[in-house]
Amino acid sequence: MSHSARTIIVAGIGVLALAACTSNTPKADPSDAAKTQAVSAGKNDEPGKKVKIGFSAPAADHGWMGAITKATQAEAKKYSDVELVVAEGTNDVNLQISQVETFINQKVDAIVLLPFDGAALTAVATKAMEAGITVVNVDREFGSPAAARTTVLGDNYGMGVSAGGYVCSQLKDKKDSIVAEIAGIDSLPLTQDRSKGFKDALAGCGLKVNNRVAAEFTVESGEKAAANLLQAAPKIDAIWNHDDDQGVGVMAAIKNSNRKDFFLVGGAGSANVMRDIKAGTSLVKATVVYPSTQGADGVRLARLLLQKKALGDLVEVEVPRKVQLFAPVVTKDNVDQYLPTAFES
Fold this sequence. Notes:
Keywords: Signal
Signal peptide: 1-28
Family: Belongs to the bacterial solute-binding protein 2 family.
Oligomer: single chain
GO cellular component, one term: cell envelope
Domain Periplasmic binding protein: 53-309
Order of helices and strands: HHEHEHEHEEHEHEHEHEHEHEEH
């Protein structure tokens, strides 16, 4: 989704071929169709109908969340036909509901909404849709498909699968390896999905999670959880930490322990972790990306929907109902590809 959406014109090649067989019409040069498509490429980015889009997200008290809002604002500024109205980030569900109510009263054309709690924001998002406002749901799904026209998601289960797959690739010849996991907030479905993906991937190579602790996506909680883990597990071969922001605390605890008997895989894909991976001087050997472009992608999709355009790289003439972004593993071999879009912890 990082590439610009473009309009595709499907040429009537079959009709041209039939005409060539039954008349004196010159046979179509295949390059002509390519030229036609090339001419139309990029038209989605050309200025169109002016659109007003409201944006609401949780408070930027976390590097990833801050990057979401920053990237969303930067993306909107690229388009002269987009007016972005940004509500102040909040972790108060009632206040976020009020923000959406305000957008409805302002009669915005679309709302890009990353809800603090998807279930709690479902009713007001549905109200916006019923008022004729296009809602694009970002990251945390609503409780009803009727609450949004399109949803942009990361892949939490896929993060776990990617992390587990990397651990397997490094420990494939060591079946007695001890694997540890530092999760995020255990009550959240996203944490549960990440842990399930990790467990399932490890099972594929005969490994399992031997030691597990949960943190709270903060530096302080990461340090405390990691300290408890290191004290409880005298032998560890690999650790997967779900979140690079809490990973700052995790690394502090590891430094204090003087332990170097394992490697670590991060989560979300922060720039500081990627720089450590590139330098090759850290115990962190990889991280798994959870894209911070989702709000920016939401703005692009809202604009396409309002201007009645489609995704240029698809044959389908409508914007999909759901777009799920990939969770790639970043290592020293490919880190330069991902650093430019990484967030700062």
